[in-house]
Amino acid sequence: MDGSVPVSGYSPAFLSITAFCMAILTILEYPDPRLNRVARPVTEFGERLRQFAQDMGETMYSAAGVGLAATQVDVHERLVVMDLSENKDELRVFVNPQIVWASTELVTCEEGCLSVPGIYDVVKRPARVRLRAQDVAGTAFELDCADKLAVCVQHEIDHLDGTVFVQHLSLLKQARIRAKLRKRHARR
Ligand code: ZN
Question: What pLDDT sits at residue 6?
Fold first, then answer.
């Protein structure tokens, strides 16, 4: 150490502790059968859950995604994270999320997924939903969701139920996507 003060204002010791505490988790890729497992409800709200939610956030940000479900990192518990903000500074954590109301009005939106890299396609879903969930401390709340948030919430809850968005597409499209991903894997 040369004794200089880091630009960020944090001591090097603090930085190393922060780096040590973060973990980037491995994201499963379609058609991995583990993506089709149904996640179980979260029943314990404590330090482990808080740390896991933080790791989920870090993993999502490092992969430049807007949402991530625990299922995608091979943890089969009902927790999702998302951040639809422009500056990526509004991490939302939904524990045991469920849709308690959905509009009859549908919306068609192009979706992508960190578990299906490079593939985008349109899915039709309810335009607005009401979400019931708990935060990492276990406090229950409800949230009315529209636009991108409504789509993202439904996409992530699908993951917890073992459904990847491409499974909403025609069987022909699904076969084409699997072939494309296989070809890409072979080239790696
Ligand atoms: Zn996804």
Answer: 43
